[in-house]
Structure formats: C-alpha cells, structure tokens
Write a structure and sequence with these properties.
InterPro entries: Integrase_cat-core (IPR001584), Retrotran_Ty1/copia-like (IPR039537), RNaseH-like_sf (IPR012337), RNaseH_sf (IPR036397). This protein has 188 residues and is α/β, with parallel strands linked by helices. The protein is built from 7 helices and 5 strands.
C-alpha cells in the first residue's frame, strides 16, 4: 500500500483516514525503520500541495505617508443583510499615517466616486483643524491604494484632476492593502 492510498482515500472510505493517522504517528515515533531506498517512495503529491503556502510578506513594510491625509488604503465590503435604508455595501478608507478609518455606506458599488468626494471634503476639514498653527499645508490626498475591484477603475481615471495618484495592488495579494482588508474583517 502506498502513502497516497492511505491519505487520499476513495470517497466514502473513512477507515483509511484514521489508519493513516495512526500509521503516521507510529512511523514518526521511530518504532518502524525503513531502508533508505523505501523512504523516497513515501511521498503524497496531494498532501504536499495541500500544505503549500505562500512566502510571508515582510513585517516591516515602510510607511509611505509623512503626514495625515496623504495616503489612503481602501476596500469595499458587502453587508450580508440590506439595511433599513437600502444600503448594501460599505467602503473603508484607512489613513496610512494615523490609521484613522473613514467608513461610508453605499446602495450600489458605482457610488464610489461620490463617496470619494465626501472623503476628500472630510479630510480637508480635519487637516485644516490639525494644521491651524501651520501657515502652509497641503490638504490634498496624494495617493489612494486599493485592490483590483472594477469599481475603482473609473475613480482612478477621475481623481487625476485633483493630483491624486491611484495605485492598484498586484492580483491575488490582499496583503498589499492589509490595513483596509483587516478593517473589513473587523466590521464583518
């Protein structure tokens, strides 16, 4: 019997799974010794594939923002139950410098641009409040980073007129917008 037969049983055969676990504990304890030529045959391709993971991202990702309101990470979440007023989606904007979160409710996903206008207005008001002592300050958002949702494509084309750069993350790497992704998980 091969190891692949034990750990990848045919459907409905549950005894093989328990036999495999007992056998692996028995083999791992050193109670059974195999000649080196037979150890190479103990490989299960599906087990190796199931245990495969991505390489971890660096824990020390350099912060790009040098002041509040400069860089935002954003993501859209779905509300499982439609609210009383008809809201089905929400969008989070996380300030990279302060980790302050702006959350807006949306009825449709194509309201992203209007929500961005609200965010821009609120950020300008907050920055004016923070920098009342400083005579010169820049109150525009410099960069917005998000995943590759199609709702952001139109927004990326429009916000150029404000001098804001839009950065999409690489496909299948939610770690690059980790701040916004974690906020979505906290809300849900």
């Amino acid at each position: 019997m091969k190891v692949a037969d034990m750990c990848c049983p045919p459907p409905g055969v549950e005894e093989w799974i328990s036999t495999f676990y007992v056998a692996s504990i028995y083999f791992d304890s050193g109670a059974v010794s195999f000649p080196k030529s037979q150890i190479n045959d103990l490989f299960c391709e599906s087990c190796a594939f199931a245990k495969a993971t991505r390489l971890p991202f660096s824990k020390a990702i350099p912060m790009m923002a040098t002041r509040p309101g400069e860089v935002f990470h954003t993501d859209i979440g779905v509300i499982p139950i439609v609210s009383f007023r008809g809201y089905r989606y929400f969008i989070d904007f996380v300030d990279e410098y302060t980790r302050y979160v702006f959350t807006f409710l949306m009825r449709k996903c194509d309201e992203v641009y209007h929500v961005y206008e609200d965010l821009r207005r609120k950020v300008r008001d907050k920055i004016k409040y923070i920098y009342t002592v400083v005579s010169e300050y820049d109150d525009e958002i410099k960069r917005v980073q998000s995943d590759n949702d199609k709702e952001y494509e139109k927004l990326a084309r429009i916000i150029v007129k404000y001098g804001t750069r839009f950065r999409f993350t690489q496909v299948y790497t939610p770690q690059q917008t980790g701040m916004a992704e974690r906020r979505i998980c906290m809300v849900m």
